[in-house]
């Protein structure tokens, strides 16, 4: 909020002088507003408002008495002035602690405009109106009122000049976008995109869906990669995007310290999560114009049969995938229907299966506390696949990708990335020698907790086929969200294993550059266009020992 | 290895010292000589960017003749104009104008004079500042004139300006005017901005009586005590007025402090001292200045903070550096007229340098070697701008240490969209959390006493630190050295206190000293059963360098990448990685090394109590039953008239509650808010809790108890119910959570019943369960047995086969 605006000039007789001030009496006592105590002592700051010539043409600010004064003094030289020069300054007064960054440009713009006006017709120097009257005063008044009330103004000054100002918030500039990152819209781009947009932007926008990586987006949209990054960065700057990681079933996620304050205690967030991940509310498949994506999530019939259709408009706007708006068919629905249903009980209930209590003769559901438990059971060293296998019943009606994504977006989950680091030791024989520390944590207990073992997990989980497809060559559409189709054991066994026969696709030197421990698997896979499975296998054939760090 | 450098940038650009005496303000010294190779200040006299005179004097070093001539010609004009104008107005003004021309110590007679003659006249006319007036008023003093004249014997026209006379492309005279504010800024934050630069100072003015310090005998305070506080360097809680004089002297690791304490000399003494002390270092040219006195000094720090971090950065450097440094100078000024003497000395050297046309470089090296004040400013600049601790000695007696305290840890893991500080210790285990120290304020006082259950992790080798300490001497040194030798990262302060015999408060004081001065960090004690993971915030770009350092430190052990690789994967207790008992010590040392560099962090366990629908139903049933009973008993005692109002009330509510049991939220809201809060009888509480239950859905969903030690009445009932369902024990009569049931501790099955009340307060999701054994002084194994029984699944060993009714904890592990 602007506290005051004043126009000051150097008077050849009186020295620095406040000509107009809004509100009246804010800077210097005014006979017309005797009750208004001045915010500050003008004489304390006059050396700043009307500084020495050397400092004119600079943005100056000074703090006094809890106020911050922003000014842009201008000194004009011309024979038509007394002493051949005219120094003036339009100053904005803010509270000292207030963020002033947005007002810097305002002050500068006003100064420039006034400079021009003065040059054209002596707008300022011929303004002999009394304090509180005249054009210049009303300009100050309107400027302050409009900026405070509407954050913008459009003040016509004469037939040629108009003062147009809009306050823009300043955001931190976003970091560079990486090829292996996955953008997701925080809002529906359809609502604000128009045909005047940048061409690259128009082309990439339909492919941003929280699944495609930046590289895939640029391939699908057939746009230049660096332009794609710049366009995305632009969207990022305005907070239109989240940046996620490439979801796959071999990825590892674990809770962060934000767990307890967010999902752990916030029941509203638990509800939001349920709405977001419940397959019952799964949105229609995205219908972007040229999207080659197969339909992602088809609501399972069982979930839909009992209730009314797919609709709720409650999908949080901040979290929806870019989907066409859902028509809400029913105005109300039972609060309990938000919670995903438990799957049918195949095995004697595992210890972690929540809500195994059917005492209330309600369909067994995954309630808020159970969602929290599910999140809490994600941990370092455990891939999503393994986690899913352990909680398949609870997760039966939950979109896994959205479930994970929700946690990442809300900041209570983080992706544990893998990094490869080659040592100068020759590669060990396939079974690690017993004395290395790696061997200490070897598969004796739960199997696959050594980094090496990740790829050698026995593929017993029903989703393995999907997982394989996920992690196989990163083709558009292979990273199907959730991949629920594999829930039956339909597609097991068929694909993959192709890499074994192939020749070495990636040379050792090329690969070697990535093995210094600073490149995560996602990056390597994206840049070398291979799947994580291929990469892991390839690393085993690397002539030197490769250590894998999880971070 | 030490990733303790402050991640945020101090943004320091330059330090300027301005003093003002009767002859006007002077830019005495600035460092570095050429801040910002490219000036960001446009020195145009006309507005806009299209001005004929627009010469961005990008580098103050290149005072090329063309630019100089351009300047002087313009300003000659100015001067003529102004002088004619001034002459017309009054003699005094004319005189003043010329006087200021003299006053200004810029050699090019014309250049500053143009601006000066004009501006001071105007300033003088409007500004009410007494100092200003005095400066003007004393003009006719012949001594003064002589003084200034002799001050600048070489002020001849046509001389080119030495490069150091301007700063950031703006002539020194401009800075002098700009940075010598009116007295209203006395001991306040003086903040001005020019484009992207912020100039911040803490100006100090001489008192009306000519002294620099209030006579303070009224507050009978032992100065000694003050300095003890100052020795620690970080206990001065902002400005409480009374601590005014106490600038922070923490000579590195508590070195020389005591000397200052005796130095409470009276101002008159100091004046005399100044008079007598001066001839020692000044030559005859200074004599005329004898009568001149400094009226103000202002050490101005020029910073260029990023726009979005402006207020934070400015505040940081102001609170930690600017104010403390200026206070120290004020102290010395009051004591020995330090600032003024040093300023005169510096000016004198500069004058000589101008005569001999010394190069900037030589001038600065001469100044820094000759003047302790110049050296102090140089030290502050170079250390602070490198995010280090600045150890400054103003005189043999007085030295201070200044720093912007670095960020040592963060609980937040930055995402791909945020600015990251890799290498920062990622943890929620800051040394004082609410449960750690229940008496402590919730709002973290920056330097409170370290919690006694933490341990000290040295950030350098023990030998190196001890050596530094002993080198610096000081009162604390022997105690510090002794403590450091006793300290171990595996033992908490309390344990060290017991084993070494050093009283706990001393240990806490010494540790916080070490922590504040970046020699150590307070961590939860390292334990082999605790779990450590590769920190998600570790700085892998440093892996290569760190691997070499690690190799030197532990040549015969697995390499750093190997170690990190081992700690990747499923988290498991650290003991799993220790090959044998003999290796324990060295593996602890390795772990300490890894923690120090932010490579690993402890994975801690947090838990909450989950309340299942059965519990809720059972409590609901019980409550209803009680209500019925109460209703019946009330019927019996109908004759008591006092209760009547209450009764009718509760009747209504009861009906209300029944009718609204189908979860109509509206009636619910109106029902329970208004009448309730004042009553304290248990029935009322039960009634209110009963009403909470009316949300039928809530009954059928499980939920968490967020803070068990501050449980609501209903939550207490749930807890009681949970407790009563633990098997293998006689049903407790009334389930007060604090009453520990009467069971023999040896009964292992009932262990969790015994410890449930003790542990309860940790099940809030914010207190790591690892704390329990340390804080409650229990065997770690026992604690985890109990926790396991309560349903906590940790590690790879699956869940124990236990009844569901005991599985009440939901645990989550993070740093």
UniProtKB/TrEMBL annotation, chain A:
Provide the family line: Belongs to the NPR2 family.
**From start to end residue, where is composition biased (Pro residues)?**
285-298
Pfam families listed in its UniProt record: NPR2 (PF06218)
UniProt-listed GO biological process terms:
negative regulation of TORC1 signaling; positive regulation of autophagy
Q: What is this protein called?
A: Nitrogen permease regulator 2
The GO terms this record gives for MF are: GTPase activator activity
Gene Ontology cellular component terms for the protein in this record: GATOR1 complex; vacuolar membrane
Q: Which InterPro entries match?
A: NPR2-like (IPR009348)
From the UniProt entry, list the residue stretches annotated as the region Disordered.
Answer: 285-327, 340-361, 423-455, 467-496
Low complexity: which segments have biased composition?
A: 315-326, 340-360
Q: Where is the composition biased (Polar residues)?
A: 303-314, 440-455
Q: Where is the composition biased (Basic and acidic residues)?
A: 467-476
From TrEMBL, chain B:
GATOR1 complex protein NPRL3 C-terminal HTH domain: residues covered: 754-789
Give me the stretches of Basic and acidic residues compositional bias. Answer: 223-244, 280-290
Q: Which residue intervals are annotated with compositional bias (Low complexity) in the record? A: 61-72, 658-669
Record's compositionally biased regions (Polar residues): 119-129
Q: What GO cellular component entries does it have?
A: GATOR1 complex; vacuolar membrane
Q: How does it sit in the membrane?
A: Peripheral membrane protein
Keyword Signal listed? The answer is yes
Cellular compartment(s): Vacuole membrane
Does the entry feature the keyword DNA-binding, yes or no? Answer: no
Q: Which Pfam families match?
A: HTH_NPRL3, NPR3
Its keywords, alphabetically, are: Meiosis, Signal
Regions of biased composition (Acidic residues) lie at 642-655
Ranges annotated as spanning the membrane = none
Chain spans, region Disordered: 31-168, 211-244, 261-290, 635-682
Give GO BP annotations, semicolon-separated: cellular response to amino acid starvation; meiotic cell cycle; negative regulation of TORC1 signaling; positive regulation of autophagy; TORC1 signaling
- Which residues fall in a compositionally biased region of kind Basic residues? 47-58, 213-222
Protein function? Mediates inactivation of the TORC1 complex in response to amino acid starvation. Required for meiotic nuclear division.
Family stated for the protein in its record: Belongs to the NPR3 family.
Specify the protein name. Nitrogen permease regulator 3
Give the species. Answer: Penicillium freii
The root-end lineage is:
Eukaryota, Fungi, Dikarya, Ascomycota, Pezizomycotina
